[in-house]
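Quick question, first post here. What does this chain look like in 3D?
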Amino acid sequence: MCNQPHISKSFASLHPDAFDAVIVAGGDFPTHPVPLAVMERARMLVACDSAGEELVRRGYKPTAIVGDCDSMSAEFRAKHADIIYKAVSYTHLTLPT
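> Answer (accepted):
Ran it through. Tokens below.
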């Protein structure tokens, strides 16, 4: 049971040092101290597409940024090309039968 009513039960059970990797997606950036501590202590910080720019803007150094890159600025893509892995969709391919 969570002893602090203002903290979600799911956050109360998290230990910031328990994660080797954290994946950050776009949307609202975390503000609660527990997920922020988890992100700061993770050995690997992987961003999905535009979340990479947000992480860098906030002072984080992502290990990798994965996505279709359509929402990243050209300047950002050029500056961080060494950690960007462009996702490619193969859904349009017809495989031999």
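The first helix runs from residue 9 to 12.
The beta strands are 21-24, 44-48, 64-67, 84-86.
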